[in-house]
Specification:
Number of helices: 10
Number of strands: 17
CATH topology of the largest domain: Peptide Methionine Sulfoxide Reductase, Chain A
CATH class of the largest domain: Alpha Beta
Largest sheet: 6 strands, mixed
CATH architecture of the largest domain: 2-Layer Sandwich
Shape: elongated
Helix content: 25-40%
Order of helices and strands: HHEHEEHEEEHEEHHHHEEEEEEEEEH
CATH superfamily of the largest domain: Peptide methionine sulphoxide reductase MsrA
Strand content: 15-25%
Strand order of the largest sheet: 7-6-1-3-2-8
Radius of gyration: 24 Å
Structural class: alpha+beta
Number of domains: 2
């Protein structure tokens, strides 16, 4: 190699290394767009019924981009979560004990929580719990967060063999400032140099993928004509005709189609409407069901998240809740499991929500 070639090659290598690190070393916050990004600001730009999903997978520029290109996602925002430190900020040592992560808003009619979990596993290095790719340390470690026991079970079920991804209860999410939101769009060249130089796509491509069946088929042969009409064609039973509207026994109510736990007797009350009524769905956050506004109506349809069975509606006449929400449910969409039978029928984890 002559001296000219040597210096050309050396220059290219040095410039490439410089650009790679420049892509990640963003100017100090005082020189960035200091516009505060809030969850409320994002909420105002998407439908009220959008579902949310939070995960960490290294640099939030990448998890945000990977989520926003997914069909069915409304928006994703970058930020920090899963820590106790106050006011986390971008910069080495400034995020406290938080992880970088993305809060994803998605259309529940196009994507399920299972889809989001599979997508997360398929776009991160799930074998690395010391960071992600070239970014090392706790703030870059991978995690998928859940709201309910159902969601936790789904994450555990889909976790690939050898996964070291943390599975944790969802906690407060702190959006990073506007300078980092949609970074992959605003700073395309620097972003691509960083992502390529970090080896993210090459590593992800080398890992086995989580594959989901196109559509799980639920057996409906056991349904009565009324149960089928209600759950599959959004039918409504006549008021005061189903035994569950006056049932006061302890236990849980599950989806008549798929068996998903939906409601606890502890949250059931007499509304006088003639249909089984509940304050909320079962679980720590009452987030088992999908809520979809209906056209030309103030009512909100309720469906089970797994079998997508029509259950009923949210009606705003509950005097016991500040938001006045009442889950008005067709008894025909439910199957009651008495407390004494919950353990033997596989619902032992839900006993705490009944007692």
């Amino acid at each position: 190699m002559n001296s000219y070639t040597f210096w050309v090659v050396t220059t290219i290598v040095v410039v490439s290394i410089f650009v790679f690190f420049l892509a990640k070393i963003v100017p100090d916050d005082t020189k960035q767009d200091q516009t505060v990004t809030t969850v409320e600001q994002v909420d105002a730009t998407i439908p009220d019924n959008a579902n949310t999903f939070v995960y960490s997978g290294g640099c939030f520029w990448c998890t945000e981009k990977d989520s926003e290109v997914l069909s069915g996602v409304y928006e994703a925002i970058s930020g920090f979560t899963a820590g106790t430190s106050a006011d986390p900020k971008y910069g080495y040592g400034r995020s406290g004990d938080h992880r970088e992560g993305s809060l994803v808003y998605y259309d529940g009619s196009k994507l399920s929580f299972r889809d989001m979990v599979a997508h997360a596993f398929n776009t991160i290095d799930y074998t690395d719990d010391g960071g992600q790719f070239c970014d090392r340390g706790h703030e870059y470690t991978p995690a998928i967060y859940y709201k309910t026991l159902e969601e936790k079970a789904i994450i555990e079920e889909l976790a690939p063999k050898g996964s070291k991804v943390a599975i944790e209860k969802e906690s407060e999410f702190f959006p990073v400032n506007a300078g980092h939101q949609d970074y992959w769009k605003k700073n395309g060249v620097r972003y691509k140099y960083y992502r390529t130089g970090c080896g993210r796509d090459a590593k992800v491509a080398s890992l086995p993928k989580v594959e989901l069946p196109e559509n799980k088929v639920y057996d409906k042969s056991h349904l009565t004509p009324l149960q089928y009409k209600v759950t599959q064609h959004e039918g409504t039973e006549r008021a005061f005709t189903h035994e569950y509207h006056k049932n006061k026994a302890e236990g849980i109510y599950v989806d008549i189609v798929g068996g998903q736990a939906l409601y606890s007797s502890k949250d059931k009350y007499s509304s006088g409407s003639g249909w089984p009524s509940f304050h909320k769905s079962i679980g720590e956050d009452g987030a088992v069901t999908i809520e979809t506004p209906e056209f030309f109506s103030s009512a909100i349809e309720l469906k089970s998240t797994e079998a997508k069975s029509h259950l009923g509606h949210i009606i705003f006449d509950n005097p016991h809740r500040p938001d006045r929400r009442r889950h008005c449910i067709n008894g025909a969409s439910l199957l009651f499991i008495p407390l004494a039978e919950m353990e033997s029928k596989g619902y032992g984890d839900y006993i705490k929500y009944v007692k």
